[in-house]
Amino acid sequence: MDSISKSGSVVGDRFAGVARETPRVGGLAAMNNIGTRLSMLWVFVMFNMVFADILSFITPGFLKGIVDGNTGGFEVTQGLLLVFAILLEIPIAMIFLSRILKRSANRIVNIVACVVTIVYVIAGGSMYPHYIFFAAVESICIIFIAWSAIRWPKPT
User: Fold this and answer.
1) DSSP labels, 5-71
2) What are the mean pLDDT values of the chain's consecutive 10-residue runs (156 residues total)?
3) Tell me, what's the pLDDT at 20?
4) 112-129 burial by CB neighbour count: b if 16+ within 10 A, else e?
5) What pLDDT sits at residue 135?
6) Which pLDDT score, from 0 to 100, does residue 19 have?
7) From the CA atom positions of the chain, what is the Rg in Å?
8) CA–CA dist 49, 131 (Å, integer)
9) What residue segments make up the domains of the chain, in order of their start?
10) From CA 69, how far away is CA 93, in angstroms rounded?
11) What pLDDT sits at residue 124?
12) Given 73, 80, 86, 98, which is the most exposed site by the fewest CB atoms within 10 A?
């Protein structure tokens, strides 16, 4: 469990097993922890993915295509839905894994998850303006996640 030092800093890191001081700055102390930052960025990516899909459902004819079993030129099958479920589970799992994995494993898993997820976002999208916007935001965030994971400093 984290404890407070005499200077008012949080000492320790429950999840990464790294003891270090994290300064308290207006409630932003948690964002100094890279694992927490990565987790929150994955939450941001997930919200964008969800709302891109919700807005796609509102597009005229989209739901009819799903009900008819054909969307975006693909036949909707149980196998296709399983593939989509697995691909969507990656960012969901990263919200949790980014908080509990140690630095070395966390870096590798985040980088791999970023590569898979950005390919899914770009290749699995549509050309609707709202989707292009969300895909751009998601892609920028995913690139920032990968960059943060690559540049994650070794504990001192």
Assistant:
1) -TTS-EE--TTT----EE---TT-GGGGSHHHHHHHHHHHHHHHHHHHHHHHHHSTTHHHHHHTTEE
2) 48 49 50 88 97 91 84 83 94 97 96 97 90 97 97 90
3) 47
4) ebbeebbebbeeebeeee
5) 97
6) 43
7) 19
8) 9
9) 1-32, 33-150
10) 28
11) 83
12) 73
d(CA 139, CA 136): 5
Residues contacting residue 56 through CB under 8 Å, at least 6 positions apart: 62, 126, 128, 130, 131
Both tokens assigned to 88: 């969507």
Q: How many residues does the chain have?
A: 156
Q: What is the pLDDT of residue 55?
A: 94
Distance of CA 24 to the CA centre of its chain: 25
Sheet holding 3-4, edge to edge: 3-4, 10-11, 21-22
How far apart CA 80 and CA 60 sit, in angstroms, is: 23
The total of other beta-carbon atoms located within 10 Å of residue 141's CB is 19
